[in-house]
Amino acid sequence: MEGLQWFVDLGASVMLPVIIFIFALILGTKVKKAIQAGLTVGIGFVGLNLILELLTSSLGPAAKSMVEYLGFDLRTIDVGWPAAAAISYGTTLGSLAIPIGIGVNVLLLLFGLTKTLNVDIWNYWHFAFTGSLVYAITNNFAFGLLTIAVHVMVIFLLGDLLASDIQSYYGFKQITFPHAASAPSYFLAKPLNYVFDRIPWFNKLEANHETIQKRFGLLGDSLILGVLLGIVIGVLAGYNLQETLQLAIQTGAVLVLMPKMVALLMEGLTPVSEAAGEMMKKRFPNRELFIGMDSAISVGHPAVLSASLLMVPITLLLAVILPGNTVLPFGDLATIPFLICLMVPVFKGNLIRTVIAATIYISAGLYIATWVSPLFTEMANNAGFDAGDNSSISALVDGALWTTGLFVGVGKMVGWPGIAAIGIIAFAGLLYVNKIRKKGG
Fold this sequence. Notes:
By secondary structure, the protein is mostly helical. Helix content is about 70%, strand content about 5%. The chain has one domain (about 1-440). It contains 16 helices and six strands. Helix 7 (about 140-170) runs parallel beside helix 16 and helix 10 packs parallel to helix 12 (about 300-320). The protein is globular, with a radius of gyration of 21 Å. The N and C termini lie far apart (about 45 Å).
């Protein structure tokens, strides 16, 4: 277990190259090509994280300054996903999320109950998060382990369901995103898109990235949009001219640089996904396989970035106007692209639909994050996390997700039978999607 924890502590930028290298060799890729693929993916993640850190270091303080400048009282600080991940893996129960997740994935693959082979092992911290929260409520270790296993099944079900939309919109072949921070939004986007399609006039409204650029010219360019939003946030934060212009250039830079890092990631993943496709054709000619990856691959898309930047001021506005919310969005403002990136393919890049859906999603999420903040704070204290002067902490990732609310709520109010019932529903869903529906054509 100590060896596994040491490997986890290396972080995604080291873990993934190793995993990709081993996986590529298993698939029959030549050693040289496997090394290049693994290292390229690792470098891509380093670049992506540097850009996210740039966004966090610029938007986070601006958000805090804006709230203080305008005189709002939000006492629960959003510490961001890096802290949430460290807290989740910092518990004994959390460290078991990876072997449990791998075990569940292998069993589902063996019995043909999933098409997803997940190599994004580091992001199993999301399952550790819900398991640790339920453990904090019940003080029952086995109950926490069950929660982790059931959460894994739910996300693999979503991973199988969203693969076709990812392929048709993003063009990523043989890839899906069983990413527990991103996949839940897909569950909301599908029914909302059905409703949007049935609203007269609104259903004819085209607002994808290309249409906006064509209609608004220079103002429709994502770079210009990033710069303008940086200026607006800087003004609202009470920044001086120098600070406002610096923020504007930084937000604009993110929209230019992030797609380039994503392209680097895809360069490394392409040979692996192709090898996986070839192997499945030879050994299982009638079976489809998707490689489960971090949804970071999709966040560089112009439609995702444009919608995410618009959601930054909207999220801050929601935080101050929603009665009962105590969470100040801070650390995870730069992670909004991960929360909504799987809404975008459902709406075919329609910016208006994405922003409306994301507003509904994050509104509910702020209440969930507020509700779980006492448990989150307790879990952080148990893991030895230094929260500084903050007596109450939470995070948008994963504290604001409906899956977190579901597992914590059911675990608290119903207990074992409730979590088991979720597991049965997820199992039935996997059975239907991968067995019954396939037979039915």
